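Sat 14:20. Reprocessing the chain from the morning session after the first attempt stalled halfway. Input below, unchanged.
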Amino acid sequence: IDYTGGGCPHILAEPQRRNLITYSEDFTQSFWLESNAVITPNDIISPNGTLTGSLLKGNGSSSFPRIQSVVSSSGQVALSFFVKKELSDEVTLYISGTGIGGADSTSAYKYTFSTDSFSKLGGGTADSSESTSFGNGWVRLDIIYTTTTITGLRIYPQYNSTSTDGVYIWGVQLEQGSYATSYIPTSGSSVTRNQDQFTRDGIGSLI
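Finished this time. Tokens:
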């Protein structure tokens, strides 16, 4: 039963999806590369109630601190991750590839915590962007793109700054589809969730 967003809960029935991010919570693995940045793992309680949230911050040595990864996908894709404000009031998502939101080869979008809003910094245009509150300051960011190919992604606590202010991050997911589905955790390989199916059996007089 899904209570996300408030209001009347409903049965959560989702299609088969695959999280292409092989380490969705552990950013110390070689799947992720730190550039001008410092990752502190297990630094805060994550949205699932465990001490698995990481702090991402600049190291003060240069601008554009980030974590980045090589990924491979195409078509319409949904990128989502959970963030929480530490000292930085923003977090930026940058993806590279071909035909991303048009003819551009890259796209960058900034999310600002204080205004709960997205702004495009450059490159291709996303199909949609959305933020959803998960309580205790955590927000899930969903960004949908139509692409020819995606080859990499980057997450910045500040896009062009030498500040050491950071953000908390957890649960990165990249899936093929026109919308983001519920989080699929990974720890070393991509993971596929099968399609949900519901049937009635012996309760026809009730439902």
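The radius of gyration is 18 Å.
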